[in-house]
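Q: Sequence in, structure out?
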Amino acid sequence: MTADPVTSQQLSPTAEVPATVRASLSPSRAADFKTCPLLYRFRSIDRLPEQPTVEQARGTLVHAVLERLFDLPPAGRTPRAASDLVAPQWERLVTEQPELAALFTGDGEARSTFLRSAAGLLQGYFAVEDPRRLEPAERESLISAVVDEELLIRGYLDRLDVAPDGALRVVDYKTGGAPREAFEARALFQLKFYALVLWRTRGVVPRVLRLLYLKDVEVCDYTPDADELVRFERTVVALWRAIEVATAAQDFRPRPSRLCDWCSHQRLCPSFGGTPPPFPVGPNPADPLRDSRSQPTPPGTDE
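A: Exactly. Output:
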């Protein structure tokens, strides 16, 4: 599939969510619970704010540029065109997310260095793909499916390619370095999540799940099969049931690991001598509308 031009194709829309659905889960929040139940609570139930880091902002910017790059005609999708999109896309993001502006308040040189670093990552993209030969079927697309009759699983695809024979390729851009084992497992978990949604809604198991690591110019391809996705679906359902049990008991315990280095909530974590806030009462944290993509993820695992 790698060598063949990929063409755009109309895909069946995701079915409406049945009224019986009680909860939703995204790959980011599912990975949070797997990594540390208390982190899941802080992000999904307490909804604690997190100031974006420079690394996260860079990832958001690169994703935005790559999405807009495919608005250009094929011949115009050049490294220079991508570089020209960096500054205007940053201005758009700052307008939409004013908290990003705080990263470089009064420091024009730091901002310029940041924009140059984003442009450098985009050069890495052109080293692994030629966008002039691609016509993605979907970009930054929200997909969802209902599993176990009551759990809505959903997430945003960076890109979905559809080959002339109908084969699907899920592409995810990573702006961190080539991953260590812990990050690689999280990234593949995310892509299997997408593969399960596509299989359940469109009846096609993606032929390729592709991770593009732009910093180190590496490509990681993975080929799932239906049996594996059945097992993965059971894992997701079991994970959600564990979340429901923890919610009912108001018991989300920390799970210290090397990922704690990137956590924004150490001052509230018992593992670091902190005390979590009182468990919130009010809107049901399992409400489908309360699980979102907006929370950041650790460097190298951007969604």
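The longest strand covers residues 151-162.
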